[in-house]
Every structure is written in structure tokens, then in C-alpha cells.
Amino acid sequence: MTISREANRVIIFDTTLRDGEQSPGASMNLEEKLRIAATLEEMGVDVIEAGFPIASNGDFESVREIGRVVKNSTVAGLARAARMDIDRAAEALQYAERKRIHTFISTSPLHMKYKLQMEPSAVLQAVTDSVTHARNLVEDVEWSAEDGSRTEIDFLCRCVEAAIKAGATTINIPDTVGYAVPEEYGALFRTLIERVPNSDKAIFSVHCHNDLGLAVANSLSGVANGARQIECTINGLGERAGNAALEEIVMALRTRSDVMPYANGIRTEHITRASRLVSTVTGFAVQPNKAIVGANAFAHESGIHQDGMLKNAQTYEIMTPESVGLNRSTLVMGKHSGRAAFRAKLKELGYEDMGDNAINDAFRRFKDLADRKKDVFDEDIVALVDDEVGRQHDRVKFLALQVVAGSRGPQHAVLEIEVDGKALPPVVSFGNGPVDAVLNAIRSAFPHEARLQLYQVHAVTAGTDAQAEVTVRLEENGKTVNGQGADADTLVATARAYIHALNKLLVKRQKTAPAAMSA
Ligand code: KIV
Ligand code: ZN
To answer: Whose alpha carbon is nearest atom 7 of ligand 1?
Structure first.
């Protein structure tokens, strides 16, 4: 895909894997990042910002591997205005068919004085030097003015002009701290485009944080005033209050094309799947009333609304559930469904390239679930499959669990696990409640020091026989990982989720990384 430069075409730049991953606790492993990148590519995202290669070996590896497999989207790597950062980004992008170095430096008085401790003249020089160096390594260079929305306009104009002169093809003006309001942010783009003499040689980009809940409105205002790239994340994931949400921007553009006539390449039917994947992998649940992807976004509860919907869906629905990928299923699954139907269902749900082992494991669990649960919904299958993908090489595996709960107590758990292919003898542990007993049993069977940071349960579907999906976040030596588990039994899902997180920590332990860094 070549990025279209038609006047009204907006480039969608997704930074879920970089700015999104900077949210505390949202760290993802390589396999998860590859799955998200593949989903973004399929969705038609123009640019995938895959990481900040100098920040850690893990980030470097993710950018390199995403660059290796992604063919249709441009892959971007972030770099500060330093040769070392830029060289590392170029190295990480070595295999990418379409690559972009995204280099940035702060330009606001506050950031220059306190964060950088640099004079404006030195910052201006760094803009030229960093972009020139990046341009010597790749064709496609984006330059960002960090804290751009709080930068003095004359100085910003000079920096932008210098960046374009040095070869930047995209100019990004972030509202780093989410301080701007729509009219003001839009006017900033109008002024820059009017005043900077070479502004016609670059595409201007919006990058908004959501501290005041204005990230999407600010982004759209920037576009109305000449910006033609939008930086955003799935589910609005991102530091503090997050970034502008991709799904909200894209559906606003689609639904209100009458007043915002800007085209983009996003296949919106992939939105729901992308949202779910990001939420599962990060453990950041989507609030039920979240626009576009919340569980209630297309639910009509009140009698008056339901009556209107039955007469004509447009009475209360401004976009269809199908347009964001909430399809009515064509294949209904139950206990009589065979392996071929299961495979077809996986395909329908977008799991195109699962290995045979993972399919077999998921199929076994599906049959087990179908025996216990009357209706097996698509959500159940997605939860089961997410619980299997990428777990074939786990060192610690769940085998069985028996729990005594209730008011009489003592609550205790009998747990069986396998470590490195060898089944351990059952372990019995007591606890202050069944969850505590289960986690104590895991700690006793496989001793470790990690601390539990998050324990979250949500029902995959309605009904008392619904599967529970549990997310567990563990922390060890400053590194955090998220684990997920799904089962009709909440305690089994708990054990699976905890063991999943533990396996991720074991992999992390093997990798040595320099001190973490953030943009
Ligand atoms: O918010 C911000 O300023 C950023 C830049 C590094 C682009 O994320
Ligand atoms: Zn940001």
C-alpha cells in the first residue's frame, strides 16, 4: 500500500504498540505485539508505530520482527533527537519493506528548560541534525515537536521549517499533555500551514492525549484545519488518560462524512476484533459505555428505544453493529459441531493462521465447554482460543484443580501442574478464600517472588453458565506481565491466568534489557 497524498485522504497512524504500551501495566510480549500488528495491517492501518528501539532490547526486537512480517503498512520506530537513537531505530527497521523513523524533541519553554535543559537555539540545531541524520538512513522521516501545543508559535514555525528543510516528510504536533481545546488546536495547524514557507512539502499530523477527554475532538479539529495524518491507539490505550481512540476517529469520519469529507483506508469491520485483542492482551478492560467498542455501544435497553428500533433501526442507531464487526454469526456452534465446523468458525472469527496443535487444544476445550454449556457463543470461542494461542511452549502448564469454598471452610485448593513436561505431585494449599488458596497452591508448587498487581474477572457472555475470563498482572523486579485465562469455572480461569502470567515472566527473566525508558 502506498500512502495516498490525495487532498482529502487522512493517513491513520496507529501507536498502540508504542504510546499505548507506555501505559503502566500494558506491557506486551513479542508474540502479542505480532498478533496486534497483523490485526492492524489487516484493518488497513497506514502506519504502525511498533516501538521505541533504543528503549529496551524487547522494543528493538519487536520493531525488527514486526518490520519483517508486515508488508502492507509502513512500520515506524521512535527515536529521540540523538544519533544513537536514530541508528538503533534504523537498525531495528532493517527488514521492513516500508519504514519510517519518527524522531522527536521537546519544543515548549517548560520542556526545553526543565526536561532538556537546552537553549532554544540548541534545540533548533538538534532538529536539523536529527532529521538530516535520519534522512540519510531512510526516505520516510517523521519529526515531532513534543509538547507542541504548548510551544511558542514563532519558535514552532522555525522548528517545523527546519525539520522540513532537513527532509522530514511528516510533521507531527502532539498535544503531549492533553491540554489543548479543539478550536485552539485546529488553529495551530492552520497557522503552521499558512506561515511555514515550505509547509506544502510535508504532511501535518495530529497526536492527542485525552487528559481532558478531548483527544478525538482535537484530532478532528486538526484535520479540519489541514492535518492529514492522525496518530491514535486502539481503545484509546495510552499513558495517563490515553491517546485518541482509533475506532472513535474512524467511525466519526465514516458516520459524519457529510461534514467531515475525509477518506481513509480503514476496514472498520475489523474494529471489534482489534479492540478485544488489545483489551485481552493488556488486561485493560473496555468500559461498557465506551463509544464504538463498549459492550453497551449497540445495546438498546429502554422500551421506547427498542420499540423504535423494531420499526426502523435508524431511529436510534447512527451506525450498524456490522460496520464495526459485530456480526450476527452465520455458524451456530454446539456440542454436535465437529472439527471442520470448528475450523470454519475460527476462520469466520479471524483466526486464520493458528497452528494445528493450538487448534486441537482449543477444539478439545470447546467440546468440553459445549458439554457443560447450552449455548456456545462466538465470544466463548474467542475467549477459549485467546487462552490457547502462543502457549504451546509454556514451561508451566495447568493440569487440574479442586477447590473447597464456602462459609464452612477451611477453603483450600488441590492443584496439579506440569513443569517442563513433567507432572508434579498434587499440592494442597489453604487460603483466606478460594482465590487466595488457588494462588497459594501455585506459589507452593512453583515458588517465585512475583507480586500480584491486578486480579480482574469478567463474564464473557450473559447467563449464569457464562465463562469467566480472568486477567492477572504480575510484577517482578519492575517488570510487569499480564496473563489471561478463560473457563466456565472462575477458579480454574484464575489458575490458568496466573500460570499464563508466570510463564511470561519466566521468558522475560531470560532476556536481559537495559533500563526502561519512555518518550
Ligand atoms: O505525546 C507525545 O508527545 C509523543 C511523542 C513522542 C510523539 O508521544
Ligand atoms: Zn504521545
So the answer is: 144
Which has the closest alpha carbon to 362: 350, 376, 344, 346? Answer: 346
Q: How confident is the model at residue 511 (pLDDT cuts 50, 70, 90)?
A: low
Q: What is the pTM (predicted TM-score) of this model?
A: 0.88
Over the range 326-339, which residues count as b (16 or more CB within 10 Å of their CB) and which as e?
Answer: beeeeeebeeebee
> Nearest CA to 173 among 110, 116, 228?
228
- The strand pair at 412-419 and 396-404 is best described as antiparallel
Confirm if 489 and 387 have CB atoms less than 8 A apart.
Answer: no
Ligand 1 pocket check for 239: Cβ under 6 Å: no
The preferred substitution site among 146, 205, 237 for testing ligand 1, maximizing ligand atoms within 8 Å of CB, is 146
What are the sequence ranges of the domains in the chain? 11-264, 339-388, 396-508
Any ligand 1 atom below 6 A from CB of 18: no
Query: Ligand 1 atom closest to Cα of 22?
Result: 8
What are the cell numbers at 237? 490505550
Q: Which CATH number fits domain 11-264: 3.30.2010.30, 3.10.129.10, 3.20.20.70, 1.10.486.10?
A: 3.20.20.70
* Closest ligand relative to 149 C-alpha: 1
Q: Please compute the mean of the pLDDT values over residues 154-182 and round it to a whole number.
A: 98
Mean pLDDT of the chain: 92
Find the range with the poorest average confidence among 16-20, 317-321, 334-338, 468-472: 334-338
State the Cα–Cα distance between residues 20 and 242, nearest whole angstrom: 7
**Residue 123 CA, ligand 2 centroid: distance in Å:** 19
- Per this entry, what is the length of the chain? 519
Supply the residue whose CA is at minimum distance from atom 5 of ligand 1.
146
Domain 396-508 is of which CATH architecture?
Answer: 2-Layer Sandwich (3.30)
